[in-house]
Amino acid sequence: MHRLVSVIICTHNPREDYLRRVFDGLEDQSMAKNHWELLLIDNASTDLLSEKWNLSWHPSARHVREEELGLTPARLRGIGEAQGEILIFVDDDNILAKNYLEQASKIASERPWVGAFGGHIEPEFECEPEPGLGKLVDWVGVVRVEEEKWALAPSCSAMNYAPIGAGMVVRKKVAKHYADLSDAHPLRKNLDRVGASLLCHGDTDLALCSCDIGLAVGQFPQLQLTHLIPSRRVCEEYIFSLIESAAFSDAIFRFIRESKIPHKKPDYVQCRSEKLFRAYQTFRNEFTRKTQPKTNQEKFDEAWGRGVERARIHIESLSQPTSL
What we know:
With 324 residues, the protein is α/β, with parallel strands linked by helices. It has two domains: 5-235, Spore Coat Polysaccharide Biosynthesis Protein SpsA, Chain A (Alpha-Beta Complex), CATH 3.90.550; 252-318, no CATH class. It contains eight helices and nine strands. Strands 1, 2, 3, 4, 5, 6, 7, 8 and 9 form a nine-stranded mixed beta sheet that branches. The termini are far apart.
């Protein structure tokens, strides 16, 4: 007996060729359509998606318009609208393997202790990534899962086992807990995309709500999807902007879940000799940077540092009294 599954696509001004392929993948699913519903959450797109996309190929498909811009409000709307016991979040650039819904339902039935899970995400690049990026390209949403792994641990301790948003499967009771937390803590809306921003970690926050209620998070290789990646996302400028935004989001995420404020370098008075030495270090480092190109690790560290500092300033501003 299949439990009803809700497939939720949250999208804002989607690329038409990509979304068409997403629907083609869903239409080709091995699970009978009477066992799952489809919700297309139109997140304040410029043109109404209900006027552009015909969903009559599915007997239980619905258009839902969410006017508040942002992936988190769109996800919350999908959670509120979904009727299934199992929710599957599909991005507007995800092509699910033919048996994805079947496998997700099977995992949910056979492993009742797992509340949120995902799988293997293979990239399909519109063009070759810029030379020299190497493994940094994985930051655009590539997840390689070779064996089953899951964990039940306190909140952030289970992060390495949590799924990302693409293809994430969540039990309705986990999603409901997340919705309740989001209502109580508005800062959670800083944990995901809003328009062109590159904020993230809303998916991690949602997944870890599983651990909050005593269920595990996991990743399973039998869940396979293809992530369509446009050319603009495989250039160095985009990747390091993404990393900086991820650092900002990570710091906000840990503040929400662990009350940790990002570390600030201590202020202290330097003696004369130390000032001279540090001035020399600064000159030497600047000279080295001009004569030798930065490594990816150096660029990563700088981008991550900028993101953390932005988060620290943002968090500290929240505690400042508002002037009348």
